[in-house]
């Protein structure tokens, strides 16, 4: 890989890492795309915004948090996933492809749960899975925690619903828009990373 490509790859991982740490970064809320299984057909695409929680460039993984009962978990666990982010300041689009894993137990899930705020953990107290029909507008939260910070004891009841979505990236498509000429590169993970230039 030439030096310019190596710099772009390093920069892409730095943008993602900053995106996880900085809630004002546009990369903080990428789009996660999946192939649906809920209709019984593999042909239904779906996509949703999620908060990027952590990035490990060395392991090429991204971490998100979600409700283990949500339909996306079924669509994503052990399956291909695309992650899309656009950074307007850099005029850079990142299209990442990888494989997803849903993790509900173990030290990594426990640590992420412990590091989440009480209000973030409260979401997982919802009585029914995300996407369940409601008779009227509502949060889905039980009445005793609506609008309140739940006690630690109450929040423990939400822990079984908390899941990590871990994405291991194997391709990165980087696109930079510029009046002087757009640039595009594609990186592939194979015993380290390989990169090449593409027509934008
Ligand atoms: C700014 C923003 C951030 C969001 N962050 C998350 C998140 O971190 N985890 C999550 O599960 N859903 C998040 N959502 C909600 C999802 O986009 C989606 O509506 C929900 O998870 C249900 O998705 P599903 O039906 O595909 O399972 C976020 C939505 C927005 C608008």
Strands, helices and their partners?
Blueprint: H1 3-21, E1 31-36, E2 44-49, E3 54-56, E4 61-67, H2 71-76, E5 80-87, E6 92-103, H3 107-115, H4 118-122, H5 152-156, E7 162-176, E8 183-189, E9 193-198
Antiparallel strand pairs: 1-2, 1-5, 3-4, 4-7, 5-6, 6-7, 7-8, 8-9
The site of flavin mononucleotide has 15 residues, from strand 2, strand 4 and helix 2.
Taking all Cα atoms into account, the compactness measure Rg is: 19 Å
CATH class: Mainly Beta
- Helix % is 10-25%
Distance between the termini: 18 Å
Q: Proportion of β residues?
A: 35-45%
Structural class: alpha+beta
**What ligand species are in this complex?**
flavin mononucleotide
CATH topology: Pnp Oxidase, Chain A
- Multimeric status of the protein: single chain
Rough outline: elongated
H/E series, N to C? Answer: HEEEEHEEHHHEEE
Can you say what the CATH homologous superfamily is? Electron Transport, Fmn-binding Protein, Chain A
DSSP helix count?
Answer: 5
Low-confidence stretches: none
Secondary-structure arrangement, i.e. CATH architecture = Roll
Number of domains: 1
């Amino acid at each position: 890989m030439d030096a310019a490509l190596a710099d772009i790859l390093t920069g892409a991982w730095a943008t993602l890492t900053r995106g996880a740490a900085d809630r004002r970064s546009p990369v903080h809320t990428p789009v996660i795309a999946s192939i649906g299984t809920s209709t019984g057909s593999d042909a239904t695409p779906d996509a949703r915004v999620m908060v990027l929680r952590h990035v490990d460039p060395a392991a090429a993984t991204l971490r998100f948090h979600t409700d283990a009962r949500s339909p996306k978990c079924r669509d994503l666990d052990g399956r291909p996933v695309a992650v899309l982010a656009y950074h307007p300041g850099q005029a850079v689009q990142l299209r990442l492809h990888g494989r997803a894993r849903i993790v509900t137990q173990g030290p990594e899930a426990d640590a992420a749960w412990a590091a989440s705020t009480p209000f973030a953990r409260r979401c997982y107290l919802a009585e029914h899975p995300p996407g369940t029909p409601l008779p009227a507008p509502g949060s889905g939260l039980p009445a005793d925690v609506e609008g309140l910070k739940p006690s630690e004891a109450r929040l423990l009841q939400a822990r079984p619903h908390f899941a990590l979505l871990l994405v291991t990236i194997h391709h990165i498509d980087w696109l930079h828009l510029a009046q002087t000429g757009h640039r595009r590169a594609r990186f592939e993970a194979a015993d380290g990373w390989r990169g090449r230039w593409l027509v934008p």
